[in-house]
Amino acid sequence: MVKYESVLKDLSVSIATMRPGDQLPTERQLAAQYGVSNMTVRRALDVLSSSKRIVGIRGRGTFVAQPTVTKQMTLASFTSSMLEAGMTARAQVLAMELKPADDKAREMLGLDEGAQIITIDRLRFGDDTPLCIDRSMLPAERFPGLLGNDLSGSLYEVLYRRYNVELSRAESRVSAVLPSHEDAQLLRIPLTTPCLRVISQGSTIDEAVVENTVSLYRGDLYELLIGRN
Amino acid sequence: MVKYESVLKDLSVSIATMRPGDQLPTERQLAAQYGVSNMTVRRALDVLSSSKRIVGIRGRGTFVAQPTVTKQMTLASFTSSMLEAGMTARAQVLAMELKPADDKAREMLGLDEGAQIITIDRLRFGDDTPLCIDRSMLPAERFPGLLGNDLSGSLYEVLYRRYNVELSRAESRVSAVLPSHEDAQLLRIPLTTPCLRVISQGSTIDEAVVENTVSLYRGDLYELLIGRN
DNA sequence: AAGTGGTCTAGACCACCCT
DNA sequence: GGGTGGTCTAGACCACTTT
Hints:
2 copies of one chain form a homodimer. By secondary structure, the first copy, chain A, is an alpha+beta fold. Chain A has 2 domains: about 60 residues, Arc Repressor Mutant, subunit A (Orthogonal Bundle); about 160 residues, 3-Layer(aba) Sandwich (Chorismate lyase), CATH 3.40.1410. Chain A contains 7 helices and 9 strands, in the order H-H-H-E-E-H-E-H-E-E-H-E-H-E-E-E. In chain A, strand 4 and strand 5 form a beta hairpin. The longest helix of chain A is centred in the N-terminal third of the chain and has 14 residues. About 5% of the residues of chain A have low confidence. Strand 9 of chain A pairs antiparallel with strand 7 of chain B. The first copy, chain A, binds a DNA duplex through helix 3. Chains A, B: InterPro entries: Bact_HTH_transcr_reg (IPR050679), Chorismate_lyase_/UTRA_dom_sf (IPR028978), Tscrpt_reg_HTH_GntR (IPR000524), UTRA (IPR011663), WH-like_DNA-bd_sf (IPR036388), WH_DNA-bd_sf (IPR036390). Chains A, B: This is HTH gntR-type domain-containing protein. Chains A, B: GO terms for molecular function: DNA binding; DNA-binding transcription factor activity. Chains A, B: One of its GO terms (biological process) is negative regulation of DNA-templated transcription.
């Protein structure tokens, strides 16, 4: 791990314990504290600043930002975008199941009758705040033993490392919904907080759809960023 | 304008004339060429690299990137997606205004003090059902007489036909919100119906942002389709 | 005047790729 | 070994705010 990443990680944790408006140590102080140069501290601050977690005011200081509605997110992958935002990504597995595919699942994944699927429900955190519920569905045949893996990180990474399957997100459907009782409880939000529901499919290079995920993002903390990265 | 921005701008233009796979000058060469230090060149390269326009390979060099699939993710335009759904698209103009740009508008459109903007609010229908409210903002200087045009169809088409300006959607931010009283009334929905808010910017080929639109879609009837097109 | 965020330098050094 | 991208330094300087 390079130096600025250590600084970033540490700063990220510190900020999480502070309140909006609180002032951070000065750049010089941070540089001395971490035994690192001005430029390296700034590189870490830049990441936090561009993800709107802090605000630098020339001549005044650096402050913890108000948590605005404009947090950042890409359609790429939860884990990578959390990293980019200087937050730690973590997933808590809510449920895992191996079961026969119903009609709907068979259609979505292009499976034959009698095929089995794996379902994985996960609650995803950014710095200990629940931000998203992921419900994934995959063909069991293609990923034997998947449920034995550690799924607290990136699902795509596990698929790549263990099964050498590289997925790309083909198409996503985004809608606005109110959370169910259960989901609201998991995300720790009121029932009236609108959420973003993203239904996405992962396909291999040969176009076969091998993953279907329904994600529910907290609407008050999340914004999807779509476009040229 | 700071130095790295000049370098970035110049590099951006250069890259546009090159082909994928072509090699850029080395960092040292660029530094000498622009009369600037290594770090400053790198800062510009970092921007291009994180937006996937170039790829740096340690020990080899820096190369123009292949346009990737994820880069091309776009939101379909309202008019075209209505067409695809077999519905007729129509827009009712709610308000049009020519007024001085406030700070926020100036920042978004990159305008100087004293510049004027055109705002256009439209209610968009699919088969006589109100589906979306669009609030657009454009620099007045660039589009003289825009308000005299028929705006019941596609705004982008008008801009193209009348001003020969071809816009591409640069980046869109999607969030889930509840509608205001006014917006709920316009869309004929209860206040508790979650909506999709899409903030998008249109830019010309030379990267200038000349349009900013906030769209509010009925969440119960509208789904955004994001995919490789 | 002193202190702050932000830019920039000139160069060292590392990891890596090519002979 | 020589060239490349990438990280980092120690400090200078600028723009700005506060005292």
